[in-house]
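Support request, please re-run this one:
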Amino acid sequence: MIKKSLASVLRMFCVGAVVLLAGCSTELMSPKGDIGMQERTLILTALGLMLVVVIPVIVMTLLFAYRFRASNKKAAYKPKWAHSTAIEVVVWTVPCIIVAILAVITWRTSHSLDPYKPLESDVKPITVEVVSMDWKWLFIYPDYGVASVNQMAMPVGVPVNFRITSDTVMNSFFIPQLGSQVYSMAGMETKLHLIANEPGVYRGLSANYSGAGFSDMRFDAIATTQEGFDNWIKQAKAVPQALDATSYASLAQPSTRLPVTYYSTVTPDFFGTIVNKYMGMDMSHGDKSMAMDMPMPMHHAETKVAE
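Re-run finished. Output below.
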């Protein structure tokens, strides 16, 4: 009877786990870039090491409960038992070894997976400047003189150097299938280096709550061939709209679900201007007059939804 009860409990646990995990996204565990693959390996390694302790504890808890149940008269009753050197050695040695291994892994990966560390490659990287806004993402390609909203593109096998800032509250730039997330903050520049190993359209998002339109603050990261990337740049250059102080003033208004937008030209060092407008107007890297004209973020209540 007891065995049947334990089996029933285990079945309920397994079914419950499957139901709860059914709605979870597997993007993090299905990486398409070198950094994402290394991070998945790190997650699984740490999980495996911790399960070395967790699984035996769960199994022994169930076995002890079954062994020393009230109805089992064969179990030895030792009310004066208080110490076992062998048990003490095991319960202290195993966790210490696991913590030591995790410490070494953490030290190494903290340096090898440093988001500020450029990726080693024989291919020249491209630079993408990222600005988080209410509630959209602006991508500037300074080497190509184009920009886009809520969509970016990159060639497969080419490192991408991201320069990231915010023109509103703090957000977090994250492409789960490519790798690390990095915060975007007003008046500051953070960095991230990623690479895509396979063609595809990968979901990007903000991983930090930033107001009413947060749930719609998503973008597409298109990993394509070099030819496909060149065509994407040509598509952006074909539109008549330019990114300057005037067009940016309109873009900066809080809005959600804004459609993909391209800009064929970009005012030089526009990214630096956005960063510096929060730094006492220190315009050593930008046009001071344009920064003075650029709008400061509006209150989140003034939100319009793009049709």
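The first helix runs from residue 2 to 21. The two ends are 62 Å apart (CA to CA).
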